[in-house]
Amino acid sequence: MHELSLAEGLIEILTEEASKQAYRQVRKVVLEIGEFSHVAPDAMRFCFEIAAQGSVAEGAVLDLTFRQAMGECRCCGESVVMHSRYDACPACGAYGIRVVEGEDMSIKYIEVV
Amino acid sequence: MCTTCGCGLSPSHTDGDGIAGRMIRLERDLLAKNDRYAEQNRDRFLHHKVLALNVMSSPGAGKTALLAQTIRELSPEMRIGVVEGDQQTRRDAQRIEAAGALAVQINTGKSCHLEAQGVGQALLQLPLMDLDLLFIENVGNLVCPAGFDLGEQYRIVLVSVTEGDDKPLKYPDMFATADLLVITKLDLLPYVEFSQEQCVAYARQINPELNWLGLSSQSGEGMLHWQIWLDQQLTALRTSK
Lengths: 113, 241
Ligand SMILES: Nc1nc2c(ncn2[C@@H]2O[C@H](COP(=O)(O)OP(=O)(O)O)[C@@H](O)[C@H]2O)c(=O)[nH]1
Ligand SMILES: [Mg+2]
Ligand SMILES: [Zn+2]
Ligand SMILES: [Zn+2]
Known about the structure:
Chain A has 2 helices and 6 strands; from the N terminus they run αβαβββββ. Chain A is of the alpha+beta class. The mean pLDDT of chain A is 94. Chain B is of the alpha/beta class. In chain B, strand 7, helix 7 (196-206) and strand 8 (211-214) form a beta-alpha-beta unit.
């Protein structure tokens, strides 16, 4: 499953940060997911729980927040809130809006002890 | 709002054990690790002047058939290697070897896409310095392979005429980042309802600069255009500094 490898990557980062930031345990992870990233929230929570076992993040709460996809029209430069990749620009009608935001997945905050 | 740092994320930074937790702002991208490995792969391809192509499609669109036919037509003059990604078996690698090229199989197990690190490991088993062209056949899946850079120079997405010409609208992510759309199995056009123009129009709704060509690896129709496209990219790579 796709989310398992993402969750394992997430745990790797948390483990790495544990020595840099001197914490023993992660209680909560706030993960921001772009609307156009390839993450199913339920699968991600499930995989996180499994991947976290035996790590600094065992038992931690995974808090998922979504980030709206934003694009820029190649034709007129308008900033556009995107609902799908094939929408036309609301300002000029051109297709092929370039995605500027909403493809990433990033850890925003962690709560640690 | 959180009383410790005002972050608004948690009412209090104390847990059941009463010990106050602290909030740390991180800003770390989950795909950063993949991107680092992809960069390493890209450097290796450029160093050896190997044209690396990430070939993606739904299962059964004809990726392996196209690669095998390309190998039969172009090797040994063109030295071709293939990294094969499938969840199970070495079957496709065997088809590639039978056609006359070197193949390394990555079995992704339960994973639905290739990642740069796995490709990097597979590259160790190929003599990159002796290759002109490297095909990376991704796992048959039109969704998430689009999200993982493998270090390739170009992304190729295949759609077979039996899949319907509205595939680009149903799976837009793949078409957004593709460099070339290849419509396959043209020999089957008489039997199905599929408009190449419509398929391309939908794909360009997502990616206006997308190049495309149509072919059949069975009948050979369109294979010349495909070869010309490959030649152009190889020439461009060799004449780059
Ligand atoms: N008629 C026809 N069948 C094809 C063509 N290319 C592939 N196929 C068939 O489609 C099926 C899947 O092909 P394969 O190359 O394994 O697809 P992959 O999963 O994308 O690698 C096989 O049965 C092939 O023989 C083609 O150009 N014409
Ligand atoms: Mg195949
Ligand atoms: Zn516009
Ligand atoms: Zn995947």
